[in-house]
Amino acid sequence: MARQVEIWNDRAEIASRALLLCQLAYDEAIAKSERFTLVAAGGSTPRILYELLAKKDWDWSKVHVFWGDERYVPVTDPLSNEGMTRKAWLDLVAIPVENIHAVPTDADEPAIAAARYEQHIQEFFGISEGEFPQFDLVLLGMGDDGHTASLFPHTKALKVSDHLVTVGEKDGQPRITMTVPLINQAKEIIFMIEGAAKAKALKAVLAPNGDVNQYPSRLITGNTIWLCDRTAMNQKQA
């Protein structure tokens, strides 16, 4: 699949470029199917993008928002990806409540929550068990350790290929995450990477060869656009 790498000066430029790509993806999806499916990510750079999306004059009745991963916390928790996305974007636009497809974090066990979210995605797309749907756009970030979504180095979630959603973990804390094959199936995937702390992992992820278990973002091999700032690419600003 195609991989495109773009270098920008800072997170503001990355967010502006991502906004344009979101608009193009929205226009194409609405023209083809009258529906736009977007998978949101957590993090500070996506938050800036969401603040820009909140100003868009889209037909929000045709926009459906999912999450690529979520901490196992209530939406009111400051660490909740859903909570951040709502405050920066979704609570500020006229999107129908049924178009917000949140990860359930109120189940007794994370495995139950993962199964419920998988079933919800299957029902939304009208697919059978074993099939993988195609989201119009998936937004991703990357951690200093090379993880993306909640696909952390040397964890069982990296090897799950027969489910849409699984349980990830970070420092013993459970996460709910979309799986590698589901993410890779998307029409377009946008990585937003900024900061010098990401430079080592980014170099390893973008290298021709490398260890996918050490740097899980290497597993994302779909139609990707990497929006990186100069410090992450270890380049000085001109």
Give the structure's gist in a few sentences.
Helices cover 29% and strands 19% of the residues.
Helix content: 25-40%
The count of strands amounts to 9
Relative strand content: 15-25%
Rg (C-alpha, Å): 17 Å
**What is the CATH fold-level name?**
Rossmann fold
Q: Order of SSEs, N→C?
A: EHEHEEHHEEEHEHE
> How would you state the average pLDDT, rounded?
96
CATH-defined architecture:
3-Layer(aba) Sandwich
Low-pLDDT residue spans: none
Secondary-structure content class: alpha/beta
Write down the domain tally.
1
Tell me about the largest β-sheet: 6 strands, parallel
General form? globular
Helix-strand blueprint:
Blueprint: E1 3-8, H1 11-33, E2 36-40, H2 44-53, E3 63-67, E4 69-71, H3 81-88, H4 110-125, E5 137-140, E6 165-170, E7 173-178, H5 180-184, E8 189-193, H6 199-206, E9 224-229
Parallel strand pairs: 1-9, 2-3, 2-5, 5-8, 8-9
Antiparallel strand pairs: 4-7, 6-7
Helix pairs in contact: 1-2
List keywords for this structure.
238 residues; alpha/beta; Rossmann fold; 6-stranded parallel sheet; 3-stranded antiparallel sheet; 9 strands; globular
Molecular structure report:
InterPro entries: 6-phosphogluconolactonase_DevB, 6PGL, Glc/Gal-6P_isomerase, NagB/RpiA_transferase-like. Belongs to the glucosamine/galactosamine-6-phosphate isomerase family. 6-phosphogluconolactonase subfamily. This is 6-phosphogluconolactonase. Its EC number is 3.1.1.31. This protein has 238 residues and is α/β, with parallel strands linked by helices. It has one domain: Rossmann fold (3-Layer(aba) Sandwich). Helix content is 29%, strand content 19%. It has six helices and nine strands; from the N terminus they run βαβαββααβββαβαβ. The protein has helices at residues 11-33, 44-53, 81-88, 110-125, 180-184, 199-206, and strands at residues 3-8, 36-40, 63-67, 69-71, 137-140, 165-170, 173-178, 189-193, 224-229. Strands 1-9-8-5-2-3 form a six-stranded parallel β-sheet. A three-stranded antiparallel β-sheet has the order 4-7-6. Helix 6 (199-206) links the parallel strand 8 and strand 9. The longest helix has 23 residues, at 11-33. The mean pLDDT is 96.
